[in-house]
Design brief:
CATH superfamily: Hexapeptide repeat proteins
Number of domains: 1
CATH architecture: 3 Solenoid
Shape: globular
Mean pLDDT: 82
Strand order of the largest sheet: 2-5-8-11-14-19-22-24-25
Order of helices and strands: HHHHEEEEEEEEEEEEEEEEEEEEEEEEEH
Length: about 270
């Protein structure tokens, strides 16, 4: 195992085994996976309130906000939910004010002992995107935006700072690593580990189809070009492209002057 890897097993491995155990009833499995608690009252409340998720029109718009509030760990004023939003372990999901959660978004905070998902004021999660915890945490900063069909997966921690733009079809993966040296076992049955999670600094922009792998730390004001794969640290104000992502220059001037004024049109061109 390489230096810097954390060999601690992810807590959701136990959850997965419990879901597959022959002794667990289908109802218990459902509650473990979706509700986050067992018992008749949590089940009835979750199922009743989630019925509002698919309601259409203005009535559905109002009903979702009303019904989601008692499920969530926190919900600020002015937040809106699209249709067919899925909440898993909603008691560990905290959403700030004036947030937009578009249609078909999945917010999955499952795990044993994790904090879950925290979404800052003014953030936006576009349709069909998934924020998925497997024992880890996800923090989406104030005013940050996640485009359509994105996946943010956390077995440790994903921290997205304020005012970050993540374009469509991006993947941020904090975990999902397995040893694979043994050939007598499926890879899934071999030890899993994480490399410290993923962080994205304030004001950065990930263009379409960027993949950020576990252990990557993206600085502030970074532009990552379309289709790039980020597996290491990127310095503040870098413009990075390629697979793996490499820094081609710094925004605003020479490498010695990262705080120089930026050139928005040039940055958009280089960012894809």
């Amino acid at each position: 195992m390489a230096a810097g890897q954390d060999p601690r097993p992810v807590s959701t491995a136990e959850l997965q085994r419990s879901l597959q155990a022959s002794g667990a009833s289908p109802l218990a499995k459902y509650q473990d996976l979706f509700v986050g608690a067992r018992g008749l009252w949590p089940l009835l409340r979750y199922d009743t309130l989630m019925l509002a998720s698919g309601a259409g029109g203005a009535a559905g718009f109002a009903l979702r906000k009303l019904c989601f509030r008692p499920l969530l760990g926190g919900l600020g004023r002015g937040t809106v939910f699209g249709r067919n939003v899925v909440l898993r372990h909603p008691g560990k999901i905290v959403i700030g004010e004036n947030v937009v959660i578009d249609d078909n978004v999945v917010l999955d905070a499952k795990g044993a002992g994790n904090a879950g998902i925290a979404i800052g004021d003014g953030a936006m999660i576009s349709r069909n995107s998934v924020l998925s915890c497997k024992g880890g945490d996800i923090v989406l900063g104030r005013g940050s935006k996640i485009g359509i069909n994105c996946l943010v997966h956390s077995e440790s921690r994903v921290e997205i700072a304020p005012d970050v733009t993540i374009a469509a079809y991006c993947y941020l993966l904090a975990g999902g690593n397995h040893e694979f040296d043994r050939i007598d076992l499926p890879v899934l049955d071999q030890p899993s580990f994480h490399k410290g999670g993923v962080s994205v600094g304030t004001g950065s922009w990930l263009a379409a189809r960027v993949t950020v792998l576990d252990g990557a730390a993206i600085g502030k004001g970074v532009v990552v070009g379309a289709g790039a794969v980020v597996r290491d640290a990127l310095p503040d104000y870098a413009i990075a492209v390629g697979t793996p992502a490499r820094v081609i220059r710094l925004r605003g001037g020479s490498p010695g002057a990262p705080d120089a004024p930026t050139a928005p049109e040039r940055d958009r061109r280089d960012g894809g």
